[in-house]
Amino acid sequence: MSKKWLMTAALLSLSACASVNTTAELTQDLRISAPTSWKSLSHQDNVQAINWLAEFNDSGLSALVGEALTHNHNLLASAERIEQAKALAISGAAARLPSVNLASSATRNLIQNVPDTKSYGASLSVSWEADLWGRIADRAKAGYASADAAKADYEAARLSIAGQTVQAWFDLVEGAQQVALAQDDLQTRQRSSRLVERRYGRGVSSSLDVRLARSALAGSEATLALREQLVANAGRRLELLLGRYPANAIEAALSLPVLAPLSGVGRPEDVLARRPDIRAAEARLTASGLRASEARKALLPRLSFTPSASTGGAKFSDIFDLDTLAGRLLGNLAQPVFQGGALKAEVRRTRAAQREQIETYAQLVLRAWREAEDALDGEVYLARREAALTVSTTEAQEAEKLAIREYGRGVGTIFEMLDAQRRRISAQSQLIAASKERAANRVRLHLAIAGDFNTQVVKTAAFVDEDTSL
Fold it and tell me: Buried-most residue among 180, 280, 291, 408 (CB within 10 A)?
């Protein structure tokens, strides 16, 4: 695949199975050049990362990914689809060989008053079509291309499951941190409520202050219940990916990973060769071209042989009279058969299917580049957001301390104290969410560029490649 006009080059690979003019007509409007560098990345790095999973420096996370790749049922189902596609390809290729059917029979007359007679017989039928124009070969090649697509689909599913597992782990960690924050907020509201109650008992605060403090306390209790529910749901989502019973039994880490500076993203043109979903689309595009070629060749005359013969007699040995059997076989030849309207309609259908695959391929490539550019943009914007929220959280913490002290001294109002507490909790919650989103965005980037990752995985029987990297 060249550096320029990559999509057109992929499409022109169909020239072996379709006429040059037809392929040119189908691909002339798809000359989308691959840029030499990412538009959203100021510092270009042409080297692809070796193992993006190692960037998070978490052996436990790597073990979870390995477990998911071994036990995830959707992934196992995808592996079985490879076997189905292989079997269909072999079945389609079998049409190039003769089909032979042999049958035997034996009868005996047991009617009363009629002499006891026996007879034995055998019949042989052969069906074979001479592949004069390569039509049957096109069908067989299309089947194998579909099998290649199924294998690429498996690789895409494997990459997706790895990414989903990592992101589900980050969701669980974020959820646990949000629960801890909600618990801290509840304790803060409890202390504030006690402070208001004491001041009210001394006649310093009004009943309005008491009501507001109690309302804030109840709101914190409701938030904690919600956070606990969400983190439980996150745990069960992760367990589902791992193929475990969803018991919410996984203990989350205490903190999200500290991200290293971004590197190893490669070039836009690398995406076309690396992403398994694009490779699957290319294989389906090849298969659709072969099927279109098969449909066109079906308009041409066919030479097929369907001889059949039978032999037999009163003795069992008569079944094996090969001279008689061979003579009858050589005397049966089928004439070429032409079918016009239905075959022409099939040509139009397969060409439309081919054009559909071309447009699907083009859209998939553009979407892959967009996903990568989005994630690269996100690296910048999310880092800025996280930095700003860090400052916001620090200032909100100091403001809360001042508001509590001033309320206790009687120079501040209940509204100022409650508002300061709310702002601090909001800033911390947003900071936790932003940190998780930044880590998740890094995962999305590696999925978009189909980065390599390594983990200990038990391979399924359907996936014969022994390499543990994707």
Answer: 291
